[in-house]
Amino acid sequence: MKRYGPVRGRLRRRLAAAVALTATLLGASACTDGKPDGGNSAGSRKPAAEYKEGRLRVLASSELADMEPILRDAKAATGVSVDFTWSGTLDAAEQVSSGKADGKYDAIWLSSDDYLRLRPEAAAKLANETPVMSSPVALGVRPEALARLGWKPQEVTWAAVEEAVAAGRLTYGMTDPVRSNSGFSALVSVASGLSGAQAALTDEDVQKARPRLKAFFNGQKLTSGSSGWLATAYAQRGDVDALVNYESVLLSMNKDAKAPLTVIRPKDGVVTAHYPLALLTSSPAGARESGRRLTEYLRGDAAQKAITEKTFRRPVAAGVAPAAGLDAEKRRELPFPGSRSVADGLLASYENELRRPSRTVYVLDTSGSMAGDNRIGRLRDALTDLTGTGSSGPGQRFRDREEVTLLPFGDEVKKVLTHVVEPGNPGPALDAIRGDVESLRPEGGTAVYGSLKAAYRHLGQGKADAFTSIVLMTDGESGDRVQDFDSFYAGLPEGQKHTPVFAVLFGDSDRKELGHITELTGGRLFDATNGNGSLDGAFEEIRGYQ
Fold first, then answer.
1. 271 backbone dihedrals φ, ψ, rounded to 5°
2. Can you tell me the distance from the alpha carbon of 404 to that of 417, in angstroms, rounded to the nearest whole number?
3. Could you tell me the residue ranges of all domains in the chain?
4. Confidence of residue 55 (pLDDT cuts 50, 70, 90)
């Protein structure tokens, strides 16, 4: 048996990264499927390597994996290579401001540093900061939905989008703002547009826009911790009309689409990502020189032309024309929140009030094998972490209005324990979940497929107006038949088939078996095996998809 250290530190872990993976040279991911921001698996949380001359260790937005061919050319021209570790905006800000990034990374490369600069202790750790390219938030709409709405793309506003959603004429997908850079920029864009803010967003602006924001988010039918998985899920479903994401992501999706999305940049303004490459003050002198050479190359005409043609981001070099499909018409740049309290308040409102609530079933292997290697202890710790503390911020605990069901199993389902986190009084439900988690005991066999069927039946009995998902954690191979589950799933109502299973590789679980389940249900595989991650990290990361 492989040994694992015990899971510790609820208070030291902050917001989970959207995808906390370590990529190898030139953006190649350490994911189990080689895709840092898509596909059916997530990668590891390996520590960054020690600094080596000519190699930049970069904490970055996962969407930058599409820069691989440009960075390959950059290495040939400058001798500088890049080791990426993927992160979400809030997690990166926490790592930088707390000093955890010191000595571990040489630079950060996010879609935007706006949130990070709201934290003075984080901003003080940045040296030179240089925009490399840009992409505004946009709305991609299916052709049939555009025809139904009768929109003229150049005239659409965020208010018009909200009105269409409120009337039940438009649905869409968007990444989770707490864990995804694109989702956070989209949230700020919508809040600014609907509030009519003429300057940096304030608490009063958010309060003024709250009723319209709630109506807007009632139309969100897909959520995700990453743009890649969101695009895949959107392509698999035909009942979602649009996506809110960066313009570059939407145009990249159109390359292989049979029915391309119409990309709309709302007339009343957008938030634009400028992808600044920022060196850390703690980085060695050699890293700062490597960063200077890399940045200079990336802002050169040849690299700028390659960037816009391969990634559909906009060049920052004045002499380089944007790629075909990039609308040259100017749009108003919407203001970012003026303080961290406003930004965090907006995120908290989205998590606990504005978005549709979540209904999640945690299908938990509590078979006899979980007694070994302290596996049951690590499961208890990981689940208890999700109940947060009294001072938990956005993304650090189960959300208000969330329905959480624990379904422990051995030879069969042992219990079905359901709790709803009540707004304004979350304590009783969170305390009850902690108590249920503490009572988990290892015993019996491993009836994975029968337990999954029970989870789907449970979700089928509840309200439909919620994000539904199943989280499966098992440390071994199933003792029942996959064919029975496949037949069961095929017979589900179409709406229930949209409930994905997010499976966690743990202990001696079967990668092929869990991969089949996630592929069948449109979910994703997360790796918590020794050396590839942690169980608490996998559970935290899954939160962005619920």
1. -95, 135
2. 8
3. 22-134+274-315, 136-272+339-347, 357-545
4. very high
- What secondary structure letter does DSSP report for 310? H
Note the pLDDT tens digit of each residue in 111-142: 988 888 888 888 899 998 999 999 999 999 99
Which residues face 246 on adjacent strands?
Answer: 137
Instruction: Give me the residue label for tokens 């959107």.
Output: 234
H helices of 407-534, in order, are 427-438, 448-460, 482-490, 511-521
**C-alpha span between 44 and 20 (Å, rounded):** 7
pLDDT in tens, 408-462: 999 999 999 999 999 999 999 999 999 999 999 999 999 999 999 999 999 998 7
Per-residue pLDDT at 151: 97
Cβ-Cβ contacts under 8 Å for 245 (sequence gap 6 or more): 137, 138, 140, 174, 175, 182, 186, 227, 230
Q: Which CATH fold would you assign to the domain 22-134+274-315?
A: D-Maltodextrin-Binding Protein; domain 2 (3.40.190)
pLDDT digits (tens, 9 = 90+) for 203-236: 999 999 999 999 999 999 999 988 888 888 898 8
Superfamily of domain 357-545: von Willebrand factor, type A domain (3.40.50.410)
250 near 314, Cβ under 8 Å?
A: no
136-272+339-347 belongs to which homologous superfamily?
A: Periplasmic binding protein-like II (3.40.190.10)
Q: Quick one: the chain helix, strand, coil %, rounded to 5?
A: 40, 20, 40
E-assigned strands of 89-188? Answer: 107-109, 126-131, 133-141, 172-175
Cβ neighbors of 238 (< 8 A, separation 6 or more) are none
Structural tokens at position 358: 């979540």
Neighbours of 262 (CB within 10 A): 20
pTM given for the model: 0.86
Virtual CA dihedral for 72, 74, 80, 82, nearest 10 degrees?
-50
Amino acid at 123: A
Question: How many CB atoms neighbour CB 52 within 10 A?
Answer: 12
Query: Is 97 in contact with 91 (CB distance < 8 Å)?
Result: no
Identify the DSSP state of 4.
Answer: -
pLDDT of 82 above 80: yes
Pairing of strands 403-409, 417-420: antiparallel
CA angle at 110 for the pair 106 and 112, rounded to the nearest 5°: 130
Are the C-beta atoms of residues 223 and 175 closer than 8 Å to each other?
yes
- 40 closest CA partner among 525, 500, 514: 525
